[in-house]
Amino acid sequence: MSHAVLIVIDLSGATASLRRPDEFTRFAVALEGEGDLARALQRSGLGRLHPDGAHVAVDPVALRALAGPAADEGWDEGFAGMCAYAAGKGWVEPDGGLLAHVDAGPETG
After folding, report:
1. What are the domain boundaries of the chain?
2. CA nearest neighbour of 18 among 100, 86, 84
3. Arithmetic mean of pLDDT, 53-70
4. How large is the average pLDDT for residues 21-47?
């Protein structure tokens, strides 16, 4: 299984948490619970649902805050590299939001 910076959004509580914050080879959102993703994103302050419905435009400032104590100098370097890679692939929105793929099922593993 590929490691990822994995954002887990609890739809029922509209909260977000970060798992494996220092793996920058994949960027994804996993969903838990029942609820509306767009509303949960708005309430959590993490970002917004992309119009395609398959991606979340994640606010980089909110992501760094979510990383908490893991966001040290090494994390900043890895995150900057991930952002540069994403920009080169066209995965950064005009407002700076980073596109993360939404995984349909709950995180396993």
Report:
1. 5-103
2. 100
3. 92
4. 89
